[in-house]
């Protein structure tokens, strides 16, 4: 252990030890948690870090660029006395940055309206406005059955190899370029996307960049990219930097902002790695005991507030290890957020896109954003009937696997036919197909018309009279 030389309140020469991305510094003065640190190696090269833990005369610093090349005696640590800040400005739309907010697109640093602390606070519940405005994503399984509202946090539960990247890119394109329901085209131009990728491979990052550029959506998208070969500790900053810009655009520029965070599992893995290096007592599957509160500190920076016309809607994407929905990351995410969209591997193998598993998916705020004046008066009863019918399809399929389809009753055979058509025509839609809510509702009624009227117990007689179609497709 070296003898640290105190050069004043804010600078120390020499560190006590280096472990992975962490530097342990003794002889510190008055410093604070989350304070930004400049680490200067023996060659005079500087890298940034932040204070992770403070004790009596010692501080634990995580180094964003890693500790390769640092020595115990030749390292200088300069404490800046403030938390990490990034520039925020409306001109950051259309730009691509790394996880720390540095430009990656070859352009200059943005002209900041101001510098904002990335450690924003969750929205005060008394300042919140309850979400009631529907967002049209163009995806039938979301718009029709798991409706997304402005100010909602609705995660996407996926698995390795499933097309969550394609679905995320499609939602971004269609949300950025398509006018949200009930809004004039002039107001919809304020809709902005903040996209944060954590630990993604280079080809995935290129796919997102090319997809947004080719569609013209990039002009309304700000991308924060932390690649798989970037330092893991940078992943802990990336979503906070993205949400800081989103808060500025929503609450100071009155924009409607959609925040995409992918992949939250990579974020949690980085958190577990740092926790293990620090020697903290692990909780379930080695994750730190504060995983819930750490995720909540990100997810709860979402919503609407009384003093602004803008909103932040969050769509976190996470891959479930071994498709296990009880894994700590999806499990805790489900507790904090208002529902989930779940992808299904069997549907993907059948060639269905997007392979959304309708039954385990849920939007807890859906009931408040649909109906007369928002989507359509029949939406609530329609969605309840579709859920009930498709749930019965699963029971019929289980029975058919035992006794065979030919032994089923006529009504059950109609349900089997309905189930196949539901997956092929309602769940399945093209990568570029942007369905309006009216199209989604009409497809659903056409499928429900495959069932006898007496089976439709969740819709009113007036709705059946208006929307039920005979065998010739007439009402």
Question: So how many helices?
Answer: 13
Q: Please report the first level of CATH classification, the CATH class of the largest domain.
A: Alpha Beta
The count of DSSP E runs of length 2 or more, i.e. the number of strands, is 18
Structural class estimated from helices and strands: alpha/beta
Low-confidence stretches: 1-9, 179-189
- Proportion of β residues? 15-25%
- The CATH architecture term of the largest domain is 3-Layer(aba) Sandwich
Number of structurally distinct domains: 3
Largest sheet: 8 strands, antiparallel
| Helical amount | 25-40%
The radius of gyration is 25 Å
The CA-CA distance between the termini, in Å, is 83 Å
CATH topological fold name of the largest domain:
Rossmann fold
Strand order of the largest sheet: 1-2-8-5-6-7-4-3
Overall spatial form? elongated
In round numbers, the mean pLDDT is 89
Question: What this model shows, in words?
Answer:
With 475 residues, the chain is of the alpha/beta class. The chain has three domains: 5-83, Thrombin, subunit H; 86-354, Rossmann fold (3-Layer(aba) Sandwich); 379-467, no CATH class. The protein is 31% helix and 21% strand. The protein contains 13 helices and 18 strands. It has helices at residues 140-143, 164-177, 185-188, 202-215, 238-251, 264-277, 291-299, 328-336, 345-349, 379-403, 410-427, 437-448, 461-467, and strands spanning 5-6, 11-13, 17-19, 22-26, 35-40, 46-55, 58-63, 76-83, 85-88, 96-98, 114-117, 156-158, 192-200, 221-227, 256-262, 311-319, 339-343, 356-363. The strands form three sheets. An eight-stranded antiparallel β-sheet has the order 1-2-8-5-6-7-4-3, with no helix packed on it. Strands 10-14-13-15-16-12-17-18 form an eight-stranded mixed β-sheet, sandwiched between helices. Strands 9-11 form a two-stranded antiparallel ribbon. Helix 4 links the parallel strand 13 (192-200) and strand 14. It is elongated and about 80 Å long. Residues 1-9 and 179-189 have low confidence and may be disordered.
